[in-house]
Amino acid sequence: MTRPQFTRSVATGPLLIADDLVKHYKSRDGHGIARAVDGVSLTLKRGETLGIVGESGCGKSTLARLILRLIEPTSGRIGFDGEDVMALKPSRLRRLRRDMQIVFQDPYASLDPRMTIGQIIAEPLDIHGLGTAAEKRRKVEDLLLMVGLDRSALQRYPHEFSGGQRQRIGIARAIALEPKLLILDEPVSALDVSIQSQILNLLIDLKARLNLSYIFISHDLSVVEHVSDRVLVMYLGRIVEEGTATQVLRQPRHPYTEALVSAVPGARAGGRIVLKGDPPSPEAVPEGCRFHPRCPKVLDICRTTPPPAIGSAGGARVECHLFS
Ligand code: SF4
Fold first, then answer.
1. d(C-alpha 143, C-alpha 127), whole Å
2. Domains in the chain and their CATH numbers?
3. Nearest 5°: CA angle at 18, between 12 and 21?
4. Is 0.90 surpassed by the pTM of this model?
5. For residue range 191-246, what is the model confidence (pLDDT) as tens digits?
6. Contact 310 CB / ligand 1 (< 6 Å)
7. 295 C-alpha to center of ligand 1: Å?
8. Which residue has the CA at smallest separation from atom 8 of ligand 1?
9. Mutate to test the pocket of ligand 1, among 297, 303, 317 (most ligand atoms within 8 A of CB)
10. What value does the CA radius of gyration of the chain take, rounded to a whole number of Å?
11. 3-state secondary structure of 200
12. Alpha-carbon span 2 to 311, nearest angstrom
């Protein structure tokens, strides 16, 4: 496979490239390994929203933390904005951290209850030493307005706000440093359905206004389809299907994606495909195709031989023997 070049034109190349990323941990008993992320490659174009779906434990949140370099990969490379992230000096890496921010699932846990909203949103500016006190105050007020709140929030504390308002505050903090990439890790999963669409619309609006690119992680396929240009499906640390949101979520090919899509209410004429059992542990990844113990279409070859990734000219990709 040709290795991706990270030095191509900054203006026209992809914003993010992950090349064969691996994150293995020692297993809990200390004798084996847990394959949390096991050879993931992806590309994020500028201005794109890339959805990542899969059941909990599939590795999608670990992948997000690898991209942000909150954890170090076991192997693999990450390119961001034309630079090889793994080769950056600490000072450059610090600058790069400004360009990549994350919004977490739980707006209750992600805001420090002892800090005022003004302090919370200004904190990234403080950490990076940006602006005078007056400039920071103006900036925080602008950010509050941008996310649909007003300056009356400045001196108040997180417990005084609803879940949706707290997520707006989390988003304001994440965009304070004017990043290029936002990783949204289940950003609406903890919210009431009625509030979810307000936050999704805010994210869509901010993306256009601020020229952002998003990685949108969720187990909720309807939400992912609403916001994503392309979608990756993860199972036990690997990407098993990739394509446009329409390709993957309207015409799924991989049996795992078919099962996920069939569980969306009203999504499938043929009814719901119920998978056997839970996903195996990353400490006990099955031989052959890692989905084979649960696959309704399993072939003999699937039990012994990992399927190759089959790509098409349109950029769709599926990892399944049915298509090889
Ligand atoms: Fe199912 Fe085999 Fe395809 Fe795996 S490779 S998803 S077991 S048909």
1. 17
2. 16-248 (3.40.50.300)
3. 170
4. yes
5. 999 999 999 999 999 999 999 999 999 999 999 999 999 999 999 999 999 999 99
6. no
7. 6
8. 298
9. 297
10. 21
11. helix
12. 14
